[in-house]
Structures are given as C-alpha cells and as structure tokens.
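Record 1 of the preview.
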Amino acid sequence: MFTAPFLNEPEYAGVAADKLKVAEVMADSLVTLKPVMRVRDLVNALTSTSHGAFPVTVTDVGDGHESGQPIELHGSITRNLLLKMLTHRVAMFDPEEPREVSVTRSPFHTQIPNHHPH
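->
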C-alpha cells in the first residue's frame, strides 16, 4: 500500500493575516473533496476555484444538501499539498487493479456544520 509522505508547508500568517476578516477570505460556496476520487474531478476542483484548502468528506454537498446541515469531516487538505501530490503522482492508483482499502475512524473525526454565507 502506498502512503503520502508528510510534506511541510509554509505558514501564511503574520501581520496581513491579523487584519483580514473572515468574509474577505471565505468562499460563497462549499467545495469538498472525497477521500478517494478521480484525478480529473480533483483537477476540476482545483481549476474551477481559487480555494487554498478543501474539506475532505464523504458527505455529498451538492444541490440536494441543505445549507446548515452537518457534514462528516474527515480532514482537510491544502491546494499546495494537492499540487505536490499530483506532480509526483503520490497516492494514485488504477481503479481497475485490485487493492486493499482500509478506512479507520480518526480520534479527530468530527462533524462540522455546513454554513453558507448569505
């Protein structure tokens, strides 16, 4: 089984971050990623948004999901880490080849409300 190596990412905080308001950096719509998804769907999410990070969930937050309903959060991943993984083909597999999949519930596994700003 292949695993993704831990890659350190720079922290973008400081004087500018102290002066930003949530509304200035928050998106109007929630774009989520699945724990396992097609590369083309991932590339579509990256090219159709300018989001710096994405929540990872199995909850479908498409048209049928009501704003304010909780989603099952598995974690989050940054755009930079996704681009590094795509560039180096980390954690990619052929869906036609048999593979063992194990999903474990993290002690940090939680639900967060799905909030869309009005």
